[in-house]
Design brief:
Chain A has 110 residues and is mainly β. Chain A has no helices and 11 strands. In chain B, strands 2, 4, 5, 6, 9, 10 and 11 form a 7-stranded mixed beta sheet that branches. In chain B, strands 1-3-8-7 form a 4-stranded antiparallel beta sheet, with no helix packed on it. The mean pLDDT of chain B is 92. Classes of the chains: A mainly beta (110), B mainly beta (114). Chains A and B meet through strand 4, strand 5, strand 9 and strand 10 of A and strand 4, strand 5, strand 9 and strand 10 of B.
């Protein structure tokens, strides 16, 4: 069974701080997607990473796919209150379905 | 920007009743999916659909569930006889192709079974 564990589960920080969220598995994924989800809404895609070692940047967000394609990280620089939300990683394991991680709930205080 | 839409946004039903959740995937996408998220839990895969047939389904997707693409734009999930434990957010997603391609999610339907 493929599982994705995210850490930390909860994160409360002050505006301006940096943070890193981790997404780990013992399984290899052909691609990994990061989503952000607001309460009562669907996951909104942030990025897809496909190649081992790949780094993608989206403004203040930096996403990295591990060399072995088993893990990924999301780094946010100078967090803002608008970054508050639930961050989900999801892996494609060679079939069509996505395996979702356990989620990291981020709260950024002004 | 094209997006996946879902109706209704909320559905309340009595246990044992049938419900149909509707989705309009992004127009040039070929793969369609249903996921669900029980309150406070992970998003879970239910079923994927391609070329007018189910390509993969999870153990959650039992005989009470069915999917259909009744026309060129809609994709539906039917639950024949709802149970209390079917209460969840149901998300439709679509992608251009399967496997590594990016899946785009709709806003969800919140189903409450009483």
């Amino acid at each position: 069974t493929q599982l994705l564990e995210q850490s930390p589960q909860f994160l409360s920080i002050q505006e301006g701080e940096n943070l890193t969220v981790y997404c780990n598995s013992s399984s290899v994924f052909s691609s990994l997607q990061w989503y952000r989800q607001e309460p009562g809404e669907g996951p909104v895609l942030l990025v897809t990473v496909v190649t081992g070692g790949e780094v993608k940047k989206l403004k203040r967000l930096t996403f990295q796919f591990g060399d072995a394609r088993k893990d990924s990280s999301l780094h946010i620089t100078a967090a803002q209150p608008g970054d508050t939300g639930l961050y989900l990683c999801a892996g494609a394991g060679g079939t069509d379905k996505l395996i979702f991680g356990t989620g990291t709930r981020l709260q950024v205080f002004p | 920007e094209p997006e996946v839409t879902q109706t209704p946004s909320h559905q309340v039903t009595q246990m044992g009743q049938e419900v149909i959740l509707r989705c309009v995937p992004i127009s040039n996408h070929l793969y369609f999916y249903w996921y669900r998220q029980i309150l406070g839990q992970k998003v879970e895969f239910l079923v994927s659909f391609y070329n007018n047939e189910i390509s993969e389904k999870s153990e959650i997707f039992d005989d009470q569930f069915s999917v259909e693409r009744p026309d060129g734009s809609n994709f539906t999930l039917k639950i024949r006889s709802t149970k209390l434990e079917d209460s969840a957010m149901y998300f439709c997603a679509s992608s251009v192709a399967g496997a590594v391609e990016t899946q785009y999610f709709g806003p969800g339907t919140r189903l409450l079974v009483l």
